[in-house]
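*** Residues and shapes ***
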Amino acid sequence: MQLLKQFTSELHDRDMLMKVAFKGIGGLGMKTVTKNREVGKLAVEEEQVRRQIRHPSMKKVNAQSMVENGNRIETS
């Protein structure tokens, strides 16, 4: 167990993580944010379709109703 703990602790660069955490990653323009949101949205929609195909009995979650109802999940 100790070997596994040591191995996982060496998988990241702590100094780099601390540098980013306290000095930031710089600016991020709205154009970039919008572009990445669109890419992410398409990826999520594709995954939802794949899950629906694999598990047709699963109900789809309506994300818009989650937002409108204070993050309460409603299925459609």
